[in-house]
């Protein structure tokens, strides 16, 4: 429900009742925001775990490629040396 509609509906209520309703709305919004923040934290943690895993895999693959290039260079050098 929009705040303007709420304001329109409670405009004729006594001030004490208006404040009680607004306090309930504030509590609900605060609770909802805590849930949203918690969900954001969980999403961020999941993203960070995925990025760490990806980084490990990339490091492994980089090591393998570097090793392959080194071995290939060594083989070419040996071939040229003994030819």
What level of helicity do the residues show?
over 70%
Structural category is mainly alpha
What is the gyration radius calculated from CA atoms? 32 Å
Mean pLDDT: 93
Concise summary:
This protein is an all-alpha fold. It contains 2 helices and no strands.
Blueprint (SSEs and pairs):
Layout: H1 3-10, H2 15-82
In words, what does this structure look like?
The chain is mainly α and 83 residues long. The chain has one domain (3-82). 92% of the residues lie in helices and 0% in strands. It has helices spanning 3-10, 15-82. The model has no long low-confidence stretch (mean pLDDT 93).
Keywords:
83 residues; 92% helix
